[in-house]
Design a protein that fits this description.
alpha/beta, D-Maltodextrin-Binding Protein, domain 2, ten-stranded mixed beta sheet, three-stranded mixed beta sheet, PBP_domain
């Protein structure tokens, strides 16, 4: 979920696993990350050492020293970096934490291969009627058949940026039918005019994922590279910032253990059940290089 950077920060909830824990031994996270991060802390056996702060502005809370690890869906602005450097004398360590993305799926034999964002809005956004247009009306194909729209039900709830597109307010209506994941894929496989909006997973063999066309007219496939590079329009990249001194020393052993645990396959797979995408090997390698735990193997990589 992408939120504005207001100066005012509302810390709406504080989770502490140990009443005796140092006030700064906390991980600062955004709302939708609270549950998965609690689970990661628990499975890293750090519940007695680390607490969790939920806030609407991770960068501000982090710079103010409310915790030494911050996890956010916003990559820090240059002004955030400058403020941190003014306060601490060095830059924070930036790591990939996770990502999520919405997939637009159609029947495997549907001739449509790509869709632009305005057409998506016409299909899935709420309006004054509960009817959807035809493929031809959106200039997606010559078919006059009405498009049947579907969305993943429970899996979108924890991902506000994606839920907002299909959530109606007031007297607005929607033609979108919400289905559980398994039923959604079965429906796509059976109905040639179906199109679905759901969280990205790796088990879309029964359907075809459409390319997305951005405002510049560029086409983007749905894959790890386009998601983590920030080019796929319906994706969030979550970053973990660590207040790590130039010497490489952590403020407390618990933070080092947590950061290292996040890089493991066990931790990454635990994110999957919350609808987040496990980091690919290349992204974990990039993190380990940033942490100076391994030497870089190839030049370049994700931005």
């Amino acid at each position: 979920m992408i939120l504005s950077r207001s100066v005012f920060v509302f810390v709406c909830c504080l989770f502490s696993f140990n009443a005796q824990a140092n006030n700064h031994h906390r991980v600062i996270v955004e709302n939708e990350l609270v549950e998965p991060v609690i689970e990661l802390v628990k499975h890293a056996q750090l519940s007695k050492q680390l607490g969790i702060i939920r806030t609407n502005n991770v960068a501000h809370s982090f710079i103010q020293g409310k915790g030494y690890v911050g996890i956010s869906s916003e990559r820090w602005l240059d002004s955030d970096m400058a403020e941190f450097v003014r306060r601490y004398g060095y830059q924070p360590t930036e790591l990939f934490f996770s990502s999520d993305a919405a997939a637009i799926l159609v029947h495997p034999e549907n001739p449509v291969n790509a869709i632009d964002m305005p057409s998506l809005a016409k299909l899935f956004a709420c309006n004054d009627t509960n009817t959807s247009p035809s493929w031809n009306a959106l200039k997606l194909s010559s078919s006059e058949d009405q498009i049947q729209t579907y969305a993943g039900l429970n899996e979108l709830k924890q991902h506000k940026k994606f839920t907002d597109l299909v959530a109606c307010k007031g007297e607005q209506q929607s033609s979108v039918k919400q289905l559980e994941a398994a039923q959604l894929l079965d429906t796509l496989n059976q109905q040639p005019n179906a199109i679905a909006y759901t969280l990205y997973q790796s088990n879309f063999d029964q359907a075809k994922a459409l390319q997305l066309i951005d405002a510049s007219g560029d086409y983007f496939d749905l894959n790890h590279e386009t998601i983590l590079s920030g080019r796929y329009p319906l994706a969030n990249v979550y970053y973990m910032y660590v207040n790590l001194a130039p010497s490489g020393s952590y403020p407390a052993p618990a933070f080092k253990q947590f950061v290292q645990y996040v890089q493991t396959q066990e931790a990454q797979q635990k994110m999957r059940k919350y609808g987040f995408i496990p980091l690919p090997e290349e992204a974990i390698q990039r993190n380990l290089v940033t942490l100076k735990q391994v030497e870089p193997e190839i030049a370049g990589g994700y931005k």
